[in-house]
Every structure is written in structure tokens, then in C-alpha cells.
């Protein structure tokens, strides 16, 4: 059965990957560059499904409007689903399916790239050499070998990141409410509590979903307990970090730096060119001034392998729904 899919917040790479994958499915698409919100939900009329990304809005008002237009399926082309009101979806009979694992290596490798760039001052060195400045003053880095890496969240991405950092000779400690003890024992890693992972980590890398329990898990108290040369890497969700607390800690040198691929108020800026605009978010603007902060625009997922996997699973989810098959990737309350 053919399905008509409205794809929101679309970029050229999304369109290319979905069209390539669609050679095996034969669905019909409309690609919209704007995001799904209460103001744009009218555009879903006549479609069987909507396909959304991390900054689209699927709150109760949107889901109610979708249901009124006979749209019964929301497919997320990502793993996170914190932007979807699952209670409303259940109430209005709208199914929600996601891509639970597209390419965990893509995200873990980006997190590692951020870490190395931060600790070895690669961005500053690159800018200098582009202007023929080969002075090394201020570029003294730090070796990872022998340091302690804390991995907060040991799903597929977190486990890969732990193994990558172990390969650098780092001691690995872990924190997760649902520990994978068999894997940890095999690798010689150790689970600890939240207080310990903040206190002992030289590198703290966040790989957990955003939930009520993990919202602002990085906060004033936990930041003050960290080593003053420790660094934080976040490729998970922006709101895992209380960004105002992070700015305060950086200003007062409670920690050594941060590398972020996500930001808790990113929806106003990420995925578009703001180079000709004034950054009105004072917290983000302040972060951008720190020499010991690296920010990338939510690109950890952006590899050819990941995009292909995302498209295949997303369209597979639509196919399963249309055929009444088992919905292996359904997100429920």
C-alpha cells in the first residue's frame, strides 16, 4: 500500500537519503523545510504520516490537529523522542515510531573528535596556521592516556565511546540506572554512582536520553564537585546540561572546558545559517566566547552511513504500520 508522507525540517541530505531508500518502498513525499508546529500542522492534511526531526514540535495541540486530519502516524528520523507528547499520542490514537539505533559509531566518533579537538586546541591551531602563524604559545594540550573517562549512559553509543577511550589507555567508569554488567565486566570497566562519576572523571561524556531524571543532570552542584581541569562532552541532548550553570563554572574555572554538539535552546539557531544575525540568546553568545568551549551544530549523526540507516529504518517503520505488521520501533508511554 502506498503511503503519502510529509517530511518536515528537511535538508538536502535528508531528502537525498530518503529518496535513495525509497527506491525500495515507493512512497510519496512532500518535503518541507519548515518545522512541524501548531502553526504549520495544517500542511499535514491529506498525508498518511508525518516524518519529523529533533526540533519539530509534536505536543498535544499538534497531535490533536494531526488526528483530526486523519494522520495516524508520526515517524521520527532520530532516536530521541522528548519532543513528542506520548500521552497525547496515546489519547488521540496516533502511533509514534523512531529510529532507535542508526549508527552509534557516528555519534561516538564525533564525541571523540570533539574531545581531541578540545584537549589539543585544534581549532585555535587551525585558525593560526591559516594566517601563517605557527606560534605554539597557548596550545599546550593534555594527553588522554592514564586519565579517567566517565561515561554517563551506556546504551550503544555510550558503550562504543567507552571502548574508544579505553583504546587510548584511559580508565573507564560508568553510570547508568540500568547497568550492562556483563559487558562492563568483560571490558574491565566499573559502574559508579552519579556523585562518583562527576568527582572522579577527567573527561565526562554524556550519552543518556533526556528524561525527567536526567534533565539538568549537569548542574551547579555536580559541576562544583568536578576536577578543575575536567572537561565535559555532550552529544546527547542539550538539556542534560544546565547551561547557565555551565557558563558560571567556566567563568570561575571550576572545570577545564566543554565540547557540545547540542544545546538546550538550540531550536532557535541550529540547522540554519545565523552568521548574518545577532545571537539574541545571551547564554549561547557567552558560550561562544570561551576559548575552552567547542560547539558544533548537532552534526554528530551526520555521516553517509547514518543517513542511509535512518532513511531505511524510517521508511521501514512506515511500511510496517501501513501493512499492519509488528511495530518493533514504536515508542509508548
Brief overview:
This protein has 333 residues and is α/β, with parallel strands linked by helices. It has helices spanning 12-21, 60-68, 86-92, 104-119, 122-130, 156-167, 181-187, 194-200, 220-224, 243-251, 282-287, 304-322; strands spanning 4-7, 28-31, 49-52, 73-76, 95-97, 148-152, 171-175, 190-191, 203-206, 231-234, 257-260, 293-295. The two termini are 28 Å apart.
Outline the structure in words:
It is a single chain. With 333 residues, the chain is an alpha/beta fold. Helices cover 35% and strands 14% of the residues. It is built from twelve helices and twelve strands. The chain has helices at 12-21, 60-68, 86-92, 104-119, 122-130, 156-167, 181-187, 194-200, 220-224, 243-251, 282-287, 304-322, and strands at 4-7, 28-31, 49-52, 73-76, 95-97, 148-152, 171-175, 190-191, 203-206, 231-234, 257-260, 293-295. A seven-stranded parallel sheet has the order 8-7-6-9-10-11-12, sandwiched between helices. A five-stranded parallel sheet has the order 2-1-3-4-5, with helices on both faces. Strand 1 (4-7), helix 1 and strand 2 form a beta-alpha-beta unit. The longest helix is centred in the C-terminal third of the chain and has 19 residues, at 304-322.
Key features of this structure:
single chain; Rossmann fold; 333 residues; 2 domains; 14% strand; 12 helices; 35% helix; globular
Helices and strands: which structural class? alpha/beta
Strand-residue fraction? 5-15%
Shape: globular
How many β-strands, per DSSP?
12
**CATH level-3 fold name of the largest domain:** Rossmann fold
Low-confidence stretches: none
- Written as H for each helix and E for each strand, in order along the chain, the element string is EHEEHEHEHHEHEHEHEHEHEHEH
- CATH uppermost class of the largest domain: Alpha Beta
Q: CATH homologous superfamily of the largest domain, by name?
A: NAD(P)-binding Rossmann-like Domain
CATH architecture field of the largest domain: 3-Layer(aba) Sandwich
Query: Total number of helical segments?
Result: 12
Give the rounded overall mean pLDDT.
96
Q: Give helix % range.
A: 25-40%
- Our measurement of the CA-to-CA distance between the termini, rounded to an integer number of angstroms, reads 28 Å
Main sheet summary: 7 strands, parallel
List the domain count as a whole number: 2
- Taking all Cα atoms into account, the compactness measure Rg is 21 Å
Main β-sheet, spatial strand arrangement? 8-7-6-9-10-11-12
Amino acid at each position: 500500500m502506498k503511503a503519502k508522507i510529509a517530511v518536515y525540517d528537511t535538508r538536502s541530505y535528508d531528502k537525498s537519503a530518503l529518496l535513495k531508500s525509497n527506491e525500495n518502498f515507493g512512497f510519496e513525499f512532500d518535503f518541507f523545510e519548515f518545522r512541524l508546529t501548531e502553526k504549520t500542522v495544517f500542511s499535514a492534511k491529506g498525508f498518511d504520516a508525518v516524518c519529523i526531526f529533533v526540533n519539530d514540535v509534536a505536543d498535544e495541540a499538534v497531535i490533536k490537529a494531526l488526528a483530526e486530519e486523519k494522520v495516524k502516524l508520526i515517524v521520527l528520523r532520530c532516536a530521541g523522542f522528548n519532543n513528542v507528547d506520548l500521552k497525547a499520542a496515546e489519547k488521540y490514537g496516533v502511533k509514534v515510531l523512531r529510529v532507535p539505533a542508526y549508527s552509534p559509531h557516528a555519534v561516538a566518533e564525533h564525541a571523540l573528535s570533539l574531545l581531541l579537538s578540545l584537549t589539543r586546541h585544534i581549532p585555535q591551531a587551525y585558525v593560526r596556521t591559516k594566517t601563517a602563524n605557527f606560534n605554539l604559545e597557548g596550545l599546550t594540550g593534555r594527553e588522554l592516556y592514564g586519565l579517567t573517562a566517565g561515561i554517563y549512559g551506556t546504551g550503544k553509543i555510550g558503550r562504543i565511546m567507552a571502548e574508544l577511550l579505553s583504546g587510548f589507555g584511559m580508565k573507564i567508569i560508568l553510570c547508568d540506572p540500568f547497568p550492562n554488567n556483563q559487558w562492563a565486566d568483560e571490558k574491565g570497566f566499573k559502574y559508579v554512582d552519579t556523585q562518583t562519576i562527576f568527582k572522579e572523571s577527567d573527561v565526562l561524556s554524556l550519552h543518556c536520553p533526556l528524561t525527567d531524571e536526567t534533565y539538568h543532570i549537569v548542574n551547579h552542584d555536580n559541576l562544583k564537585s568536578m576536577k578543575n581541569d575536567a572537561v565535559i562532552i555532550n552529544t546527547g541532548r542539550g538539556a542534560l546540561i544546565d547551561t547557565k550553570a555551565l557558563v558560571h563554572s567556566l567563568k570561575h574555572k571550576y572545570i577545564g572546558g566543554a565540547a557540545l554538539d547540542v544545546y538546550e535552546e538550540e531550536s532557535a539557531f541550529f540547522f540554519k545559517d545565523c552568521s548574518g544575525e545577532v545571537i539574541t540568546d545571551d547564554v549561547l553568545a557567552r558560550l561562544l566566547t570561551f576559548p575552552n568551549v567547542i560547539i558544533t551544530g548537532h552534526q554528530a549523526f551526520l555521516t553517509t552511513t547514518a543517513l542511509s540507516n535512518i532513511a531505511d529504518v524510517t521508511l521501514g517503520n512506515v511500511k510496517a504500520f501501513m501493512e499492519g505488521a509488528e511495530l518493533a520501533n514504536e515508542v509508548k508511554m
